[in-house]
Amino acid sequence: MKHHRSSTLAVRKKDSGFSIFEIMVTLAIISLLVGLAAPRIMESFGRAKSKAAEIQMHSVKGAIQLFYIDVGRYPSESEGLDVLLIEPAAIANWRGPYLDKAEDIRDPWGRIYLYRSPGKNGAFDLYTLGRDGHSGGTREDSDIYL
After folding, report:
1. Residues paired with residue 106 on neighbouring β-strands, in sequence order
2. Phi, psi of 133 (to 5 degrees)
3. For the domain 19-145, what is the CATH code?
């Protein structure tokens, strides 16, 4: 009786586990799923960064408006957005800092927001060139103006 029982266990051990073919099919299916899902996930990250840039730009715009209220003018292009963080020696009514930290004037891709005064369609332009850092583009590479 003992002999019969051990031979049954040996047969089970031999048949247990996965064949190399089953493993390869499983890996192929997983690769296919990742290949289909990855572009959508990356696109979502890109949209999230673009949306974050818009939100940050509204904060910077608010800081520029506060600067205008205190000083009576918008920052010049030569002063740039740094004037929202560091008190310049030549401005008497500066009551900043108007932003908390230097990262507040950087877009989600790590570049300083672009500022132009006077702007093309108003007192100033605040914008970023998107992920690629070049004018134009589509999706997350597109320029974002506020």
Report:
1. 112
2. 75, 15
3. 3.30.700.10
Distance between CA 64 and CA 83 in Å, rounded? 9
Q: Where are the domains of the chain?
A: 19-145
Tell me the C-alpha to C-alpha distance, in Å, between residue 112 and each of 80, 103, 132, 133: 10, 8, 14, 11
DSSP helix/strand/coil, 106 = strand
Residue 87 phi, psi (nearest 5): -70, 120
For 75, list phi and psi in degrees, rounded to 5: -60, 145
Per-residue pLDDT of the chain (146 residues), as tens digits, is 555 555 555 555 556 677 888 888 888 888 877 777 766 666 666 578 889 999 999 999 999 999 999 999 999 999 999 999 999 888 889 998 999 999 999 999 999 999 999 989 889 999 999 888 778 777 777 878 88
DSSP-derived pairing of the beta strands 114-116 and 144-145: unpaired
Q: What is the pTM of this model?
A: 0.67
Longest dimension (CA), the chain: 102
Spell out the residues 6+ positions from residue 87 whose beta carbon is closer than 8 angstroms to its own. Answer: 94, 96, 97
